[in-house]
Amino acid sequence: MQKALLSLCLCAAVPLAAVAQAPTVGVRARDMIVGSVGTGDLQLLLDDMGAHYTTSGVNDRQAPYVFATSKDGMSFGIYTACANPDGTDCRGIEFLAVFKSDLSVEQVSAIDQAYAAVSIYKSAPDTVNVSRYVILDHGVTWANLLENGEVFEVLCEKLTEELSDTSSAQVAESAHGGVR
For the chain, which residues make up each domain, given as ranges? Predict the structure, then answer.
């Protein structure tokens, strides 16, 4: 009888120990090393940035992406670059915002040269893209990803004024004529 009770107690204790060791879903330690991302990671990144998730999906190469609105109201997307054709081993992410602007290619190029931390380019006669690319090869910390998101948001806010007095952020989906 004692052996049966001991076995029963051990059977109950083992799952409880496993549950106690499981990480909390939806939380990333700031010092966690990230070498590849998926849709869930992108959604957690948005949460940690204080952004409002809009939608997510995969492009024709199965690479995941998310769209969101920043805490300041700017629409943007986070796209992935994946090594495998099935959308896995995604070792690069791109923060991307699209702005309406009638500035010339030359004017946009001059602004781009003043901002080394982002790429600013004309994608259509009345459209300017602002992009920040992060390479995850060999891993970066979660805190580093958050910092990259913060830099992107701060620079986009500053660029809104420079691109045009009437510029406004558009949905990031239009950046590449649809979802990439």
Answer: 26-176
Buried b (16+ CB within 10 A) or exposed e, 34-47: bebbebebbbbbbe
Query: Tens digits of per-residue pLDDT, 11-66?
Result: 444 343 333 333 344 788 999 999 999 999 999 999 999 999 999 999 999 999 99
- The whole-model pTM stands at 0.78
C-alpha distances out from residue 98 to 111, 124, 173, Å? 15, 10, 8
CB 79, CB 96: distance < 8 Å: yes
What is the sign, positive or negative, of the torsion defined by CA atoms of 45, 47, 50, 52? positive
CATH entry 1.10.8 includes domain 26-176:
no
C-alpha 122/C-alpha 100 separation (Å) is 10
Give Cα 106 to chain centroid, integer Å: 29
